[in-house]
Structure formats: structure tokens, C-alpha cells
Write a structure and sequence with these properties.
There is one protein chain. The chain is α+β, with helices and mostly antiparallel strands. It has helices at about 1-20, 30-45, 50-55, 115-140, 150-175, 195, 230-245, 250-260, 300-320, 340-355, 395-405, and strands at about 65-75, 80-90, 95-105, 270-275, 290-295, 365-370, 375, 380-385, 390. The strands form three sheets. The chain has a three-stranded antiparallel β-sheet with strand order 1-2-3, covered by helices on one side. A three-stranded antiparallel β-sheet has the order 4-5-6. A hairpin with a 2-residue loop joins strand 2 and strand 3.
């Protein structure tokens, strides 16, 4: 029995010598332990074990992605969205790194023009995104470092590009090919006396009807089912990378863009929507979607946002006193009053700016977001500026020109 135990002990010693040999996995451990022990004696740290952890941490393997896990949630406006968790492996331990949520952009459900089919499509897109994240995409990204943002984004894009190609090929195979129609030349067409005498149609006044050239209607954007998984995973990886580097998220994003942290960061000039209008809002006004205020670059962002909040509250209070409609808000929190003319929104913002002691066009300027193609009636070739009021393209240009001239000093953009 003793001989057997001695033999086993010798075998363990042999394996240990191979492990700590020059070419073994633990070749440098003994040498580094000696250095560490000497440093502890010299440095005399308050936290000895913390000193040991900090020393060996520089030799550890980088954190890698273990898996992603996604599930369905309800966002702040009551629509389904995707929540994604990122798990990684570091120091031989699996740990939670980050979580993020993303809305589904494939469908825009208008509360005033609700269609059950659109909601069904949104639900299917959510389910497909969750399915892809928890299976194929999680496996494709497992083992990568969360700090390698560009590589991960490229993998995600290539994955969906390949999926799109496969869908296009399947669609082409299942779509029947129509035979081309026979071409009849003008020479072979029979000529009759009546046809040769035909003239182009005229308007009742005897003048040729002018041809109205309009831009073609924008085709609906076709998105792949589950394509929001790209944004969900990219966002989760970005947050996780910032956590690994132990830096603020905005600093981490700046480093991704400039390859290093810039000396100074600048915030973009905010254009804040205070009032919303358009076809989806109450009132007859259709040609303006958003009424915005833009602070001067000379005002700090912190002070500008404080004043913008006061402008918002003044508009809400003013509208509430004119029929109680001021507190009707859309999903983004902007006020949705009943406007019939664009001047109503512009005058209200001007009044709010003056109440703060500012001059419109100096500390704060006004801006509008025109509805554009959303108010174009392609059949009639005219723009529905407000309910029942149609304007030709030339008349619409004159309409906007007159509005800008009248509010020129207010710097409408």
C-alpha cells in the first residue's frame, strides 16, 4: 500500500515539474511569485492580498463574451421591445456585464390610423430578433472580446447581408416569370383615317393642360424580420466594452471614433421640439410636423436646457388656459395642440421666449420641421397644407417664402 502511495506521489511530482518547466503552462509562475514576494516585503502594502491581485491581474487573459440572452419587454410607450443581456468570462468566472433595450423600428404604428396587421408584424419582428440573438448570433460572437466593437459590428452586418441574399434568392425562385409581351412596331400598326385626324385633348378653355411633374412616391422601406438584433447586440457590446475599460460610455464611444480619447468633447447644438402638429396631431394644420427652439452657441448646454424646460412649461400652461389642450402629448413628450395655421405655433414660442427676458433670434431661434412628402397627394398633384386646403408645388414655395419673410427676424430654419 505504501509503495502504491509513493508511486502516485512521484507521478504527481513529475507532472508538477512538467507543468512548471520552461515550456509548461505555468513556466513563469514560480519566477513571478518570487518577484511578488520580494515586492510585498519592500512595498509593505496595507492590503497584502489586494496587492497580490493587482500584480497578477496584468497577466490574466482578457475578458471574452460568453453569451447573449434576450427577451421581450414593454417599453415606455406600451410597445414590445427587446432587452439584451451580455455575459462574459474573466478570471475563470462567468459574470454579467451589461444590459440594454432597443425598440423595434420595422413598424410605425400611428394611433390615429391603427392597423392590427402592423402590430402583428412588430410582434413577429421582436420574436425573430430574440430567436436570432439567443441562438445563431450568440454563438457567432462567443469568445470575442467586447472591446472589439468594429469586428463585432462587421460580423453582425455580414450575417444579415447573407440572410437577405438567401431571402432574395428564395423569393426569385418562387416568383413565376412572366412572358414578355409581343412588341408591335408603328409601321405594322393599321392606320385609319380617324386615327390620323386625332388631336391631343384640350382643356375646356381650348388650352393644353399643363403637365405637373412630381417626384415619385417613396417606396416603403423593407426591413428584414429581426434586423433590430444588430442594434440590440451592438449597443449591448458597446456598453459592456465601456464597463470593461472602466470609462464613461461617451468617452468610450469617442475613443471608438478617434482611436483615442480627444482632449475635449463638444456637445452638438440641441434642436428641441416643443410643439408637434401634422396629420397625426389634432387640428387642421398638416404642413408642419414640429415647432422647435434652437439655443445660441454662446449659451452653455446646461443653461440652455434649463431655459428650454421653462419655454416648454410656459407653452403648456398657456395652452391649458385656452381650452385645456396643453397637456396632450405624443410618445416623445412634445405638446400636441390644435393648430390651424403655422403662425399659431410660432407666435406661441415667441411669446414664451420673451417671457424669459430673451429676444427671439438672439438667445433662442425658432425652427420648423416641414412635413414635405407626407402631405403630397400624388393623385391630385397638390400638397394638403391644412385639411381641405390644397396647394400646387409653385403655390407651396410661395407659401413658405412668405412665412419666412414675415418671421425673418426670428431666424426660422
Amino acid at each position: 500500500m505504501e509503495d502504491i502511495q509513493c508511486s502516485k506521489m512521484n507521478e504527481v511530482k513529475r507532472l508538477a515539474m512538467e507543468y512548471y518547466a520552461d515550456e509548461g503552462p505555468g513556466a513563469c509562475v514560480v519566477e513571478r511569485m518570487e518577484v511578488l514576494i520580494n515586492n510585498i516585503f519592500i512595498d509593505n502594502p496595507v492590503d497584502v492580498y489586494g496587492h497580490i491581485v493587482n500584480y497578477f491581474q496584468q497577466f490574466t487573459k482578457p475578458l471574452t463574451i460568453l453569451k447573449f440572452w434576450a427577451w421581450e419587454i414593454i417599453d415606455s410607450i406600451g410597445q414590445t421591445a427587446v432587452q439584451t443581456d451580455l455575459y462574459g468570462t474573466v478570471l475563470n468566472t462567468n459574470k454579467f456585464l451589461s444590459t440594454s433595450s432597443i425598440a423595434i423600428p420595422s413598424v410605425n404604428v400611428d394611433p390615429l390610423n391603427y392597423k392590427e396587421s402592423l402590430e402583428t408584424e412588430r410582434q413577429q419582428s421582436v420574436e425573430r430578433a430574440i430567436e436570432l440573438i439567443n441562438a445563431d448570433l450568440s454563438q457567432a460572437l462567443s469568445g470575442l472580446e467586447p472591446t472589439d466593437q468594429c469586428c463585432i459590428d462587421e460580423i453582425l452586418i455580414n450575417f444579415f447581408m447573407k440572410m437577405k441574399q438567401e431571402m432574395d434568392m428564395n423569393k426569385a425562385e418562387t416568383t413565376p416569370v412572366e412572358a414578355p409581351a409581343p412588341v408591335v412596331s408603328d409601321e405594322s400598326a393599321p392606320q385609319t383615317a380617324d386615327s390620323s385626324k386625332k388631336k391631343s385633348p384640350k382643356s375646356p378653355k381650348g388650352k393644353a393642360k399643363p403637365v405637373v411633374l412630381l417626384p415619385p412616391a417613396e417606396p416603403p422601406e423593407v426591413l428584414l424580420p429581426g434586423c433590430s438584433a444588430v442594434a440590440a447586440l451592438s449597443k449591448s457590446v458597446c456598453i459592456g466594452g465601456a464597463s470593461v475599460r472602466d470609462v464613461a460610455l461617451y468617452d468610450y464611444i469617442a475613443c471608438l471614433k478617434h482611436q483615442q480619447l480627444p482632449e475635449g468633447l463638444r456637445m452638438p447644438l440641441p434642436m428641441v421640439t416643443i410643439l408637434s402638429s401634422g396629420k397625426s396631431a389634432p387640428g387642421k394644420l398638416n404642413c408642419v410636423k414640429d415647432f422647435m427652439v434652437v439655443p445660441s452657441p454662446n449659451i452653455s448646454l446646461k443653461m440652455a436646457m434649463k431655459h428650454i424646460v421653462k419655454i416648454y412649461n410656459h407653452c403648456a400652461k398657456s395652452l391649458s388656459g385656452k381650452g385645456g389642450m396643453g397637456r396632450i402629448c405624443n410618445d416623445w413628450g412634445t405638446l400636441c395642440p390644435q393648430f390651424d395655421r403655422p403662425e399659431q405655433g410660432l407666435d406661441l414660442l415667441e411669446e414664451a421666449i420673451k417671457q424669459l427676458g430673451f429676444t427671439p433670434g438672439q438667445e433662442f431661434s425658432l425652427a420648423i420641421n416641414c412635413a414635405g412628402h407626407e402631405i403630397l397627394d400624388y393623385e391630385k398633384g397638390r400638397y394638403e397644407v391644412s385639411t381641405g386646403l390644397l396647394k400646387s408645388p409653385e403655390e407651396l414655395v410661395t407659401f413658405w417664402t412668405d412665412l419666412v419673410i414675415r418671421y425673418r427676424r426670428k431666424n426660422i430654419g
